[in-house]
């Protein structure tokens, strides 16, 4: 049988497939969502289920839970639109049984969109620095935790991430010995970043500023062209978000959500209510958390190849400028991870390029491999822990395994506690509520899922309470439950912390020192060093007839 030689196309498809498979695997392992994802996720739900006609908007979730500041609907509308073909295809194949399956498909669609951005960056890296650099870039990206885990999650940062990656691709995709991007490349990248900052995440203005300064200093764009590009793209972006979001929020005056967010969080200082971190936090905590071994590798890459430094100057400047703000979250700088990974790929190239027959070849190869293996070990552990950190989603899944319209005769009215609502109990997980999508589910069944906040124990469990079931985060005393006619049906366990059992490690080391032949059994014993603790977080209660 003749073997088919690998071509550049085969390699490209394999690398693209690896990035996509990594992102989709994270969605499959952790399909539930947290509260920070809820606005865009619920907006997608409402657009798919109700549409966005004037009469339909009153049913949308943002009218009930508007949040501290308005957010844009542009990302949610776009995601709903690109999710519709895969939803229809999956429905045709009979793969969608309920609304939760729609949530999974929406999330893998977003993950695929961000995969496209990363694949374009990877191809630009291959074009400019060589195919091996593209391979190392892919391996490094897939071995990290935060970016693959979050690129399918509906926070505004993930919509902005795609646009930042597109701009990075535009600036980077040029000949290996090209000294700078063209004026057209700069104009297009600046326009895209302006749109991302105006519509999705205002902090990107702090990335755009040093990028524009760099373009001016290296004479790759003129000041008049820069001003013209910025003004036109800024006005068009503002006009789009104001027209769309004024309509969706039914605002009496023109509404620019991202501008309101900046005024609220930065100028009024309200972001400090969520905590203030020291200025060094991004450099000493969040970047190492995001990049893992990519930190030392990127420094080596910058030292090895001066061409790598150009995209990193604005990235470093962005992190420095963001450090001036009091409230810090790793999500605010997620956009620079693909850029740092370009330099990290250069670092891996340094280790793997040493000839294997040379004196330092084997050591260099082992060091490079070890750095990737460290990434993978941390990622596997972080993923395992994270999958257990969505008790709200698990509670509703277990609730539906206990009760369904075929076995539960009386109408169900379940109250969902705040913790459950914040940790996975999204609108898509309310599978027996109306409306349903495209014939999925029984339209004659309409369970009520109630998330009213601030209800007392008496209001929840009293005789006049409308609830037939409760998902609670504080278990009432058994005597109270018995007296008021309630019973505990199930406790929902979730992540409760990590225990380090150093005595197990010490015992394993001692046994090997005494008898080296016990190394395998000692290695098996190391599994008990780190223990992920699961605790009861939520309880499902049922009213006794």
Automatic annotation (TrEMBL):
EC number(s) reported in the record: 2.4.1.-
Main location: endoplasmic reticulum
Membrane topology of this protein: Multi-pass membrane protein
Keyword Nuclease: no
One GO MF term: dol-P-Man:Man(7)GlcNAc(2)-PP-Dol alpha-1,6-mannosyltransferase activity
Chain ranges passing through the membrane: 332-354, 360-381
Organism this protein belongs to: Ephemerocybe angulata
Protein name (Swiss-Prot/TrEMBL): Mannosyltransferase
Enzyme category, top tier: transferase
Listed PANTHER family: DOL-P-MAN:MAN(7)GLCNAC(2)-PP-DOL ALPHA-1,6-MANNOSYLTRANSFERASE, GLYCOSYLTRANSFERASE
Pfam family, one: Glyco_transf_22
One GO process term, biological-process aspect: protein N-linked glycosylation
Gene Ontology cellular component annotations, sorted alphabetically: endoplasmic reticulum membrane
Domain of life: Eukaryota
Keywords attached to this entry: Endoplasmic reticulum, Glycosyltransferase, Membrane, Transferase, Transmembrane, Transmembrane helix
Similarity section: Belongs to the glycosyltransferase 22 family.
Reactions accelerated catalytically: an alpha-D-Man-(1->2)-alpha-D-Man-(1->2)-alpha-D-Man-(1->3)-[alpha-D-Man-(1->2)-alpha-D-Man-(1->3)-alpha-D-Man-(1->6)]-beta-D-Man-(1->4)-beta-D-GlcNAc-(1->4)-alpha-D-GlcNAc-diphospho-di-trans,poly-cis-dolichol + a di-trans,poly-cis-dolichyl beta-D-mannosyl phosphate = an alpha-D-Man-(1->2)-alpha-D-Man-(1->2)-alpha-D-Man-(1->3)-[alpha-D-Man-(1->2)-alpha-D-Man-(1->3)-[alpha-D-Man-(1->6)]-alpha-D-Man-(1->6)]-beta-D-Man-(1->4)-beta-D-GlcNAc-(1->4)-alpha-D-GlcNAc-diphospho-di-trans,poly-cis-dolichol + a di-trans,poly-cis-dolichyl phosphate + H(+)
Protein role: Mannosyltransferase that operates in the biosynthetic pathway of dolichol-linked oligosaccharides, the glycan precursors employed in protein asparagine (N)-glycosylation. The assembly of dolichol-linked oligosaccharides begins on the cytosolic side of the endoplasmic reticulum membrane and finishes in its lumen. The sequential addition of sugars to dolichol pyrophosphate produces dolichol-linked oligosaccharides containing fourteen sugars, including two GlcNAcs, nine mannoses and three glucoses.
Pathway: Protein modification; protein glycosylation
Compartments where located: Endoplasmic reticulum membrane
């Amino acid at each position: 049988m003749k073997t088919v030689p690998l071509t550049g196309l085969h390699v490209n498809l394999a690398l693209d497939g690896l990035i996509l498979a990594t992102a989709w695997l994270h969605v499959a392992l952790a399909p539930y969502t947290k509260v920070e994802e809820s606005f865009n996720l619920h907006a997608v739900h409402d657009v798919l289920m109700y549409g966005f006609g004037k009469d339909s908007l009153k049913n949308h979730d943002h009218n009930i839970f508007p949040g501290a500041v308005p957010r844009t609907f542009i990302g949610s509308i776009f995601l709903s639109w690109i999710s519709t073909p895969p939803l229809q295809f999956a429905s045709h194949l009979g793969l969608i049984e309920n609304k939760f399956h729609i949530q999974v498909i929406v999330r893998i669609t977003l993950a695929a969109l961000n995969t496209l951005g990363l694949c374009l960056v990877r191809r630009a890296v291959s074009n400019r620095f060589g195919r091996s650099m593209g391979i190392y870039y892919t391996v490094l990206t897939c071995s990290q935790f935060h970016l693959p885990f979050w690129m399918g999650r509906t926070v505004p940062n993930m919509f902005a991430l795609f646009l930042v990656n597109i701009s990075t691709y535009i600036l980077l995709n040029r000949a290996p010995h090209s000294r700078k991007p063209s004026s057209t490349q700069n104009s297009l990248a600046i326009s895209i970043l302006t749109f991302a900052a105006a519509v999705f995440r205002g902090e990107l203005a702090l990335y755009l500023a040093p990028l524009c300064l760099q373009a001016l200093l290296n004479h790759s764009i003129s000041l008049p062209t820069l001003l013209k590009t910025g003004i036109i793209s800024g006005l068009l972006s503002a006009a789009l978000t104001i027209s769309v979001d004024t309509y969706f929020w039914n605002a009496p005056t023109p509404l620019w959500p991202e501008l309101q967010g900046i005024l609220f969080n930065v100028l009024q200082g309200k972001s400090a209510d969520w905590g203030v971190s020291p200025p060094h936090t991004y450099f000493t905590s969040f970047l190492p958390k995001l990049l893992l071994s990519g930190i030392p590798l990127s420094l080596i890459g910058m030292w090895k190849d001066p061409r790598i430094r150009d995209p990193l100057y604005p990235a470093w400047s962005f992190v420095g400028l963001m450090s001036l703000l009091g409230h810090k979250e790793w999500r605010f700088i997620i956009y620079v991870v693909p850029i740092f990974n370009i330099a990290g790929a250069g670092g891996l190239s340094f280790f793997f390029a040493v000839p294997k027959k040379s004196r330092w070849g084997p050591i260099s190869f082992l060091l490079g491999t070890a750095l990737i293996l460290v990434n993978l070990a941390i990622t596997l552990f972080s993923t395992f822990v994270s999958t257990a950190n969505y008790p709200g989603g698990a509670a509703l899944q277990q609730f539906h395994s206990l009760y369904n319209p075929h076995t539960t005769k009386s109408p169900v009215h379940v109250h969902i506690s705040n913790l459950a609502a914040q940790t996975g109990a999204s609108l898509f997980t309310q599978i027996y509520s109306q409306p349903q999508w495209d014939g999925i589910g029984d339209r004659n069944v309409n369970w009520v899922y109630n998330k009213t906040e601030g209800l007392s124990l008496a209001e929840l469990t009293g005789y006049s309470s409308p609830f037939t079931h409760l998902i609670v985060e504080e278990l009432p005393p058994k005597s109270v439950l018995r007296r008021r006619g309630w019973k505990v049906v199930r406790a929902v366990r979730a992540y409760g912390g990590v225990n380090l059992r150093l005595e197990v490690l010490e015992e394993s080391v001692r046994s090997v020192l005494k008898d080296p032949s016990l190394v395998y059994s000692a290695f098996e014993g190391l599994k008990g060093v780190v223990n992920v603790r699961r605790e009861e977080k939520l309880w499902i209660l049922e009213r006794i007839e």
